[in-house]
Specification:
globular, alpha+beta, three-stranded antiparallel β-sheet, 3 domains, four-stranded mixed β-sheet
Length: about 350
């Protein structure tokens, strides 16, 4: 929600709002039973997964360690790209990557299709989450069934299923996570940026974006402003890699752009393009406008509650962010705080 950018399972500060009590078994790791020395309080899930492997290696005589993931390439284009562009593979295998010294992460099911998973389940009678049975009885296709956190950016539109399948749990979820009920109702509507969004009369995309920013809590507003400023500076000074067809279209439609070398972040070394004038209000006149900056894309981030701005190409690089935060803390007195775009 606009007031809670992150939520934490089993939040120790909100025990009264837990959906269910934590299981009481010796193997259940929690704050009062935590042997993982590499854990940091409220660390992100992705960091925890990596640090678990590092801790396991340390606690087992620093021997070579491999952590297994059930991730598959056909689950999403992002995961497919992740396998395709592995930087630290093992013996040229795209499904094994090095995380730390003598610590690897392997996804042996990386090339399995959805049909392969259920075929194996049928042949070997594997146990599985019975939520899939409820999905089936609700009339969902196999490709629509998802058992994961319902609150991330990729599954918000399936929130309504939880309300239908288990009303009792749903009532607890609404009390636990801010904005859950709103997302379940409006996730597939224009209110959350689903499909086409019409611009309010009298607004440009820039003015509408600024209007939306003014309606947000200060913390969330500053988060968007920081990312938008970073994007604007990037496209004015360094530039992003674009297809040659897109570059030709931009030139034919009168956009003031210039080439700035090649992008090392693209497999085929696309040309980096800098925008010489203001960032476009929109690029609806360009066929392949997915990678082109515009105020419309910024506006979509706000409407979709995409505070990470993934749709603008941002991702969470927490290691770099922690380093920057340490520098800022050290030189806090020298900073010039500016909340304007």
């Amino acid at each position: 929600s606009s007031y809670e950018m992150f939520w934490y399972p089993w939040d120790d500060t909100k025990k009264e709002a837990w959906v269910r009590q934590m299981p009481k078994h010796k193997y259940v790791i929690h704050l009062e039973n935590n042997p993982i020395t590499t854990y940091r309080y409220r660390m992100h899930q992705e960091d925890l997964a990596k640090q678990f492997g590092r801790w396991y290696r340390i606690s087992h005589g620093n021997k070579k360690t491999v952590c297994l993931l059930g991730m598959r390439a056909d689950e999403s284009l992002q995961r497919y790209s992740g396998f395709l562009n592995k930087k630290y593979g093992y013996k040229n295998e795209c499904w094994i990557s090095r995380q730390f010294k003598n610590v690897w992460c392997a996804s042996p099911l990386y090339d399995w299709s959805l049909e392969d998973v259920w075929h194996a389940n049928y042949l070997f009678e594997y146990d599985y989450n019975r939520l899939y049975d409820l999905y089936y009885m609700a009339g969902l296709k196999v490709s629509q069934m998802r058992v994961a956190s319902p609150f991330n950016d990729y599954s918000k539109d399936s929130l309504n299923l939880y309300r239908v399948l288990d009303p009792d749990i749903w009532a607890k979820l609404v009390g636990r996570v801010q904005g859950a009920n709103f997302a379940s109702i409006y996730a597939r509507s224009k209110a959350m940026g689903y499909r086409s969004i019409t611009l309010p009369e009298g607004h440009t995309w820039e003015s509408y974006t600024r209007f939306l920013l003014d309606t947000l809590p200060v913390k969330l507003r500053n988060n968007y402003v920081k990312k938008f400023n970073t994007s604007i500076k990037f496209w004015h000074e360094k530039g992003g890699g674009l297809e040659e067809e897109t570059i030709r279209e931009l030139e034919e439609h009168g956009y003031k752009i210039k080439r700035n070398g090649v992008s090392n972040y693209t497999l085929d070394k696309k040309s980096r393009i800098i925008f010489m004038e203001k960032i476009p209000d929109n690029t609806d006149d360009i066929k392949s406008c997915r990678d082109i900056p515009s105020w419309k894309r910024m506006c979509y981030c706000i409407l979709k509650n995409d505070h990470i701005c993934r749709s603008m190409g941002f991702g969470l690089n927490r290691q770099q962010q922690r380093a920057i935060d340490m520098i800022k803390k050290r030189y806090k007195g020298l900073e010039e705080m500016n909340g304007e775009i």
